[in-house]
């Protein structure tokens, strides 16, 4: 990133966090780690309380082998530095509008709404349509493009 360039905020869905811990798929794990490392370096990662909750649940119960609860809690605490968005009434209203307009499932609409509320330009998710832009947030599938995409024009 050029010196003095504005940093674009990037919202991270729980699936990216989970793949970073999932050794069952080494390719996706490495791509998720590359993205997360880039976001830590740039200090531009964002997420929400529900994303962290979903990460904790699936990391401790869904991964094989399961992540020890203490390790998952340590990761959740570390991601507190990313200013997790607490879902409020305005975010829920925005999510409902996205759900109605685009037909997304409520949890996906809530992820998009939280990204919007935080002023994110990008949303990393494997679950949503790649390269779709909704109300100023462009969705990227982090397993189709690398973090160098942040340096390109949206």
Describe this structure in words.
- The mean pLDDT is 94.
- By secondary structure, the chain is α/β, with parallel strands linked by helices.
- Helix content is 47%, strand content 9%.
- A 5-stranded mixed beta sheet has the order 2-1-3-5-4.
- Helix 3 runs antiparallel to helix 4 and helix 5 packs across helix 6.
- 35% of the residues are buried.
- The longest helix has 17 residues.
- The protein has a single domain, classed as Rossmann fold.
- The radius of gyration is 15 Å and the shape is globular.
Describe, in short, the structure shown.
With 154 residues, the chain is α/β, with parallel strands linked by helices. Helix content is 47%, strand content 9%. It contains six helices and five strands; from the N terminus they run E-H-H-E-H-H-H-H-E-E-E.
């Amino acid at each position: 990133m050029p010196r003095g360039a504005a940093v674009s905020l990037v919202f991270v869905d729980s699936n990216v966090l989970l793949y970073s811990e999932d050794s069952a798929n080494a390719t996706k794990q490495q791509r998720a780690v590359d993205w997360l490392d880039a976001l830590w370096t740039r200090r531009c990662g964002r997420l929400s309380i529900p994303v962290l909750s979903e990460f904790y649940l699936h990391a401790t119960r869904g991964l094989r082998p399961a992540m020890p609860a203490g390790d998952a809690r340590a990761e959740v605490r570390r991601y507190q530095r990313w200013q997790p968005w607490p879902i409020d009434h305005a975010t829920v209203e925005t999510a409902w509008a996205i759900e109605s307009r685009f037909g997304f499932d409520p949890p996906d609409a809530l992820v998009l709404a939280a990204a919007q509320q935080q002023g994110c330009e990008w949303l990393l998710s494997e679950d949503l349509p790649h390269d779709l832009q909704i109300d100023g947030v462009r969705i990227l599938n982090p397993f189709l493009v690398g973090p160098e995409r942040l340096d390109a024009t949206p």
